[in-house]
Amino acid sequence: MAARQRNLPNILITGTPGVGKSTISKILSERTKFPWREVSKLAEEYNCLDEYDPEYQCPFLNEDKLLDIMEGMMVKGGNIVDYHGCEFFPERWFDGVFVIRTNNTTLYDRLSARGYTGKKLEDNIQCEIFETLLEEAQSSYKPEIVQELQNNTEDQLHTNVETIVQWIERWKENNI
Ligand code: DAT
């Protein structure tokens, strides 16, 4: 593989909806000044959403179109990418992959508060129980760049941000 062209790392924040990806990404973005790439928002903004999937109550994502748009953003590094999926991104994009985790009861409360009910709520809880996103990350990226972070409490939220900030600092020291 070609040598990296970037001076700052690209970070992927992934996990089941409701685990705290946006919350972590926002604080991390303020701390690091790295842009927060909210993939769902980018998909909307750049018209990468195809017709509506009635079963999952969300639109289909046009992945190829989205990847073409994101490629230019990723080249220079220093991005925080936030998405509840990771296998369709090119492996070369990311230096660190953080899989955010939340226990079932906490996740249930957060998703209910968001207005999720029925199948959508159950599917997301199952997704977390079966560690779907953790497995997806582990099968899509080298194990040494994938890190799991428990994010149930406010204390853990701050610890997680600190962990990623320190990881970025180490990356910079090792990649100058
Ligand atoms: P996601 O982006 O993964 O869908 P989110 O950042 O929107 O998740 O968080 C879902 C809700 O949970 C939101 O109301 C903020 C809250 N939350 C996130 N992390 C938390 C934490 N560590 N402790 C308490 N609440 C948290």
Can you offer a commentary on this structure?
By secondary structure, this protein is α/β, with parallel strands linked by helices. Helix content is 47%, strand content 18%. The protein contains 7 helices and 7 strands; from the N terminus they run βαβαββαββαααβα. It has helices spanning 21-32, 39-45, 63-74, 104-113, 118-129, 132-140, 154-174, and strands at residues 11-14, 36-38, 49-53, 58-61, 80-83, 96-101, 146-150. The strands form 2 sheets. It has a 5-stranded parallel sheet with strand order 2-5-1-6-7, sandwiched between helices. Strand 3 and strand 4 (58-61) form a beta hairpin. Helix 1 (21-32) packs across helix 7 and helix 4 (104-113) runs antiparallel to helix 5 (118-129). The longest helix is centred in the last third of the chain and has 21 residues, at 154-174. It binds 2'-deoxyadenosine-5'-diphosphate.
Placed side by side, the strands forming the largest sheet appear as 2-5-1-6-7
Number of E strands:
7
- How many helical elements? 7
Small-molecule binders here are: 2'-deoxyadenosine-5'-diphosphate
Features:
alpha/beta; 5-stranded parallel sheet; globular; two-stranded antiparallel ribbon; 176 residues
